[in-house]
Write a structure and sequence with these properties.
This protein is an alpha/beta fold. It has two domains: about 150 residues, Aspartate Aminotransferase, domain 1 (Alpha-Beta Complex); about 230 residues, Type I PLP-dependent aspartate aminotransferase-like (Major domain) (Aspartate Aminotransferase, domain 2), CATH 3.40.640. About 45% of the residues lie in helices and about 15% in strands. The strands form three sheets. An eight-stranded mixed beta sheet has the order 2-9-8-7-6-3-4-5, with helices on both faces. A hairpin with a 2-residue loop joins strand 4 and strand 5. Helix 4 packs across helix 12, helix 5 packs across helix 12 and helix 13 packs parallel to helix 15. About 45% of the residues are buried.
Length: about 400
């Protein structure tokens, strides 16, 4: 057999297995309580509505639903997406939208058209692992900027951009998850959002606004989206139906300047020609019937209660030691737990699995290989009982480590 490693292209050689998915293989055993995935609660899925909508799509749109469609997305769905954007203060037209197969494809297309090997790309510390995988795969030189409870630290961001300005390799974009960030659950403040827009103009740098959770706010006031604040066309916003509707449709969309959308569409043509028309029409019909807003309200109520259960359990069971704390997100699916610096969560993971509880190691979300004393906890998927018992088990593992 030929030596495949020598024959793989450079992009294939850069691809690495997801740390999360590799570790999750260890959690498939009876009695395991997992806070590791980013899964929606399946009990919230609108199964009955979907049965009727699927039948309607076949009956009324069968000839379109089973056919190829335009690369940019079906006009029917894009009209609904324009309405969604308008409710968030974003005024766009058809040519500002590209419908994708999930937001992950959107990130991959962005990497494909913008990143040359060794290009500096700025990300948060921590940042969404799916974005990090994409950018690494295209050869980006990722530079991490620390965050706090209000998002990315702007002084360090500007200092980094000032240093990069005079280098040979041109920085390409800043990648942010501004609302209920995955993994930390924090939200970029209104003041910092306005400053990010100024920075993008000053340094002539694009900002990727990855925003799958924005509509899942269950307390507090929502800051303006970066897209709604921008009038220089420096923002590319990436959305998905996976968290606000259902992930099984694998539907997302990108909003950007028409020239960027055209280039992204060309890149998409070489990947899959078009997003499935059948799933697009299902999403269109769901939105057209006014069901999306009702579904989001239902999901928010469920996740709000689950977050409260997790926060209460953390207060009840976690040891009261210096350096151990957690974020208190106002929405989304995740919170971030920070351990004392001498405790290694990468090693703790295996001890937690022995206690039949799983989390995601925080180092997987750090482009610089750090964050070994952090972990991400998901509260959207497990039941109230599982959250309570799972935090009890996790606290036991941490206490044993402290001893």
């Amino acid at each position: 057999m030929i030596d495949l490693v020598k024959n793989y292209g450079i992009h294939a050689r850069r691809i690495k297995a997801s740390v999360i998915r590799e570790l999750l293989k260890l959690t498939n055993k009876p009695g395991m309580i997992s806070f590791a995935g980013g899964l929606p609660d399946p009990k919230a899925f609108p199964v009955e509505d979907m049965k009727d909508i699927c039948a309607t799509v076949i009956d009324e749109f069968g000839d379109v639903a089973l056919q190829y469609g335009p690369t940019e997305g079906l006009p029917e769905l894009k009209k609904e997406l324009i309405k969604l954007a308008a409710r968030d203060g974003v005024n766009i037209k058809d040519e500002n939208i590209l419908v994708t197969v999930s937001s992950q494809q959107g990130l991959d297309l962005i990497g494909k058209i913008f990143i040359d090997p060794s290009d500096p790309v700025i990300v948060e510390l921590p940042s969404y692992i799916g974005g990090l995988q994409v950018f690494h795969g295209y050869g980006a030189s990722m530079i991490g900027i620390p965050t706090d409870d209000d998002g990315i630290l702007l002084d360090q961001l500007e200092e980094t951009l000032e240093k990069l300005k005079g280098t040979e390799e041109h920085y390409k974009f800043i990648y942010l998850v501004p609302d209920f960030q995955n993994p930390a659950g924090v939200t970029l403040s209104q003041e910092r959002r306005k400053k990010i827009i100024e920075i993008s103009r000053t340094y002539d740098i694009l900002v990727i606004e990855d925003t799958p959770y924005r509509q899942l706010r269950f307390e507090g006031t929502s800051p303006d989206s970066l897209m709604s604040l921008d009038n220089t066309n420096n923002i590319i916003s990436v959305y998905t139906f996976s968290k606000i509707f259902v992930p099984g449709l694998r539907l997302g969309w990108i909003i950007a300047h028409p020239s960027i959308i055209r280039k992204l569409a060309l890149a998409k043509q070489s990947v899959d020609l078009c997003t499935p028309t059948f799933t697009q029409l299902i999403a269109y019909e769901f939105c057209r019937r006014g069901l999306l807003e009702k579904h989001i309200e239902k999901v928010k109520a469920i996740y709000h209660k689950k977050r409260d259960v997790m926060l209460k359990a953390l207060e009840e069971y976690m040891p009261k030691v210096e350096g151990l704390r957690w974020t208190k997100p106002q929405g989304g699916l995740f919170l971030w737990l920070i351990l004392p610096k001498h405790i290694n969560a990468d090693k703790l993971f295996y001890e937690a699995v022995e206690e039949n509880v799983a989390f995601v190691i925080g180092s997987a979300f750090h482009c610089n290989g750090k964050g070994q004393n952090t972990m991400r906890l998901n509260f959207s998927y497990p039941t109230h009982e599982e959250i309570h018992e799972g935090i009890h088990r996790l606290a036991k593992a941490i206490k044993n480590k402290l001893k």
